[in-house]
Amino acid sequence: MVAEPGQGDEVVTTPAEPPAVPHPADEPAVRERARAIPEAAVARLAIYLRALTELSEQGVGTVSSEELSIAAGVNSAKLRKDLSYIGSYGTRGVGYDVGVLIGQVERILGLTRNHSVAVVGIGNLGHALANYNGFPGRGFPVTALFDVDPDLIGVPVGGIPVDHIDDIPQVVADRDITIGVIATPPSAAQEVCDRLVSAGVQCILNFAPVVLQVPDHVEVRKVDLAVEMQILSFHVARRADEGSTESTAAGPDGAVNGTGMSEVDGMVMRP
Amino acid sequence: MVAEPGQGDEVVTTPAEPPAVPHPADEPAVRERARAIPEAAVARLAIYLRALTELSEQGVGTVSSEELSIAAGVNSAKLRKDLSYIGSYGTRGVGYDVGVLIGQVERILGLTRNHSVAVVGIGNLGHALANYNGFPGRGFPVTALFDVDPDLIGVPVGGIPVDHIDDIPQVVADRDITIGVIATPPSAAQEVCDRLVSAGVQCILNFAPVVLQVPDHVEVRKVDLAVEMQILSFHVARRADEGSTESTAAGPDGAVNGTGMSEVDGMVMRP
DNA sequence: AGCCGCTTGTGAACGCAGGCACAAAGTCGC
DNA sequence: GCGACTTTGTGCCTGCGTTCACAAGCGGCT
Ligand SMILES: NC(=O)c1ccc[n+]([C@@H]2O[C@H](COP(=O)([O-])OP(=O)(O)OC[C@H]3O[C@@H](n4cnc5c(N)ncnc54)[C@H](O)[C@@H]3O)[C@@H](O)[C@H]2O)c1
Ligand SMILES: NC(=O)c1ccc[n+]([C@@H]2O[C@H](COP(=O)([O-])OP(=O)(O)OC[C@H]3O[C@@H](n4cnc5c(N)ncnc54)[C@H](O)[C@@H]3O)[C@@H](O)[C@H]2O)c1
């Protein structure tokens, strides 16, 4: 049971010679996946959406790829390419209509409907998530909370009473839960995950530091703070080794403030 | 890279092994940089470390790349390549000595020393982070808390009294803070970040959904839950479109596939 | 002692993502 | 109505990261 996606170990499909022989003709077996959006692009679309929403609230009606790319902290060419994956909604010589683009990005991201969220494990983190109002504001209302602790059952957190995890099947069905958030101790994560999946949840956001085993049709995203810190630690260590270079005085003003972006260090693109 | 989510990629150097790479480089800037560990590999090393630590606690003394790769949820070839970045510590025909490997990974990740963490913004999330005992257990003790709310100043959270953000310079220096965690509202994030950087903090973990502007020598990692959810939403929507083909309800022990992104997964639960 | 099988370490191919640069396309001004 | 300017959309090239496949190396078995 090797944790490995598709292929078995030795697929003898193409007996063709591995040695380099530039094969001209043959098409690379075009899948029926006509519109495949790179995963990395999807993540950025979410960032663009936040920047666009902010612009919209400011009354901005049109934005160029250059402006938007600065707000999102990415390269403008990359932004245009990302947007091209979802269609051609820009106007050459003008830019993009903010409203239209918001609609299209939301369509692609599946945000035209609400996605009810269930949080399992109402401890430190679960409480914070339940009380967070950034999710409902973005189409992800938290509508169910679960725990095993008898003292918590029935207690409202963030306005929602905690249910027992045995009620997962029922509640998930009733409230049309599409996203399950796991905030239990690591030891309980897999079991909780299994229960959620059995109840029909196809999206899991996991905060427990374990690898979850799920069927292929279930999507898992993981947030691992310890790993994030260790990556930071690595960079510190590396920096300490390399001779310290001169430190350029940072710019006095920052100004451009946008929204999230990938976890790159603070490099700002040039206009 | 991201999480989640996409991932800033940046080659980084490590002070590990001799150069010894007879590569017919056509690189213009051939620095004497020894070897570069891909950012993605660094993230996975943290995962391997957790798996190795667990194995060690179970008394396992030796592990093969195959076993470890399963525990970490990755391809075994990838695991070997990742480990090769930090040196050759395996024994052919046998595998890796768990203790030795833990030591080497910790060395590369800079975990031979403790990294004191400061959390800024002791609200919902800040409380959870301050109370979390998973950090101290991994060499990241939270030793300082900051906020602006007068009602919070002096109140101990997770055993540590909250300081006012004006005390950042002093406290950061006194307690040798190396990592700053931003858990303030988005509007305050940039200012808090600037203060931390001014105080000498070179690593930032940001939970606020904004792009932080920092000097080049500061490393920023971002955790953006809304983006994670939107990525999940995207996959639901996409599945709904083309999903009408076949619904493979087969595989009970699904592969830990998940995102194809740079984000990596944690480890697997022991049976 | 020598062979055999297992596992590592890595060269090389492949595929994806990023970024440049430009043609296409539309607008604005005159 | 036409030209010049602006900005999009994308072809192509580059480089990184992943994966395959195998020779080298090591321990154990006979
Ligand atoms: N607190 C943080 O800031 C933080 C940070 C990073 C990661 N995490 C991870 O998030 C998870 C939760 O952390 P926490 O600090 O909130 O822990 P916690 O101990 O405060 O809360 C865990 C909650 O899960 C409940 N629980 C236990 N077993 C359960 C089960 N089988 N089904 C349902 N609920 C169950 C407990 O009753 C408790 O309420 C952990 O895996 C932790 O590693 C937390
Ligand atoms: N709560 C969550 O589960 C969650 C989830 C995802 C993202 N976030 C993000 O994390 C951040 C914090 O969320 P929260 O729910 O804890 O918010 P919160 O409002 O509960 O807490 C914010 C805290 O920051 C403090 N603060 C405000 N301005 C400050 C300043 N200038 N300097 C120092 N402290 C300041 C406030 O006094 C408060 O204690 C937000 O950016 C939010 O978007 C939170």
TrEMBL record, chains A, B:
InterPro entries xref list: CoA-bd (IPR003781), NAD(P)-bd_dom_sf (IPR036291), Rex_actinobacterial-type (IPR058236), Rex_DNA-bd_C_dom (IPR009718), Tscrpt_rep_Rex (IPR022876), WH-like_DNA-bd_sf (IPR036388), WH_DNA-bd_sf (IPR036390)
GO molecular function, one term: DNA binding
Protein name: Redox-sensing transcriptional repressor Rex
Biological processes, Gene Ontology terms: negative regulation of DNA-templated transcription; response to redox state
Lineage: Bacteria, Bacillati, Actinomycetota, Actinomycetes, Pseudonocardiales
Start and end residues of each stretch annotated as Disordered: 1-30, 242-271
NCBIfam families: PRK05472.1-3, PRK05472.2-1, PRK05472.2-2, PRK05472.2-3, PRK05472.2-4, PRK05472.2-5
Subcellular localization: Cytoplasm
Function (record text): Modulates transcription in response to changes in cellular NADH/NAD(+) redox state.
Binding partners and assembly: Homodimer.
Domain CoA-binding: 110-211
Keyword terms, alphabetized: Cytoplasm, DNA-binding, NAD, Repressor, Transcription, Transcription regulation
DNA-binding region: 47-86
GO cellular component: cytoplasm
Pfam families xrefs: CoA_binding, Put_DNA-bind_N
Residues where NAD(+) binds: 121-126
Similarity annotation: Belongs to the transcriptional regulatory Rex family.
PANTHER family with a match to the protein in the record: REDOX-SENSING TRANSCRIPTIONAL REPRESSOR REX, REDOX-SENSING TRANSCRIPTIONAL REPRESSOR REX 1
SUPFAM superfamilies from the UniProt entry: NAD(P)-binding Rossmann-fold domains, Winged helix' DNA-binding domain
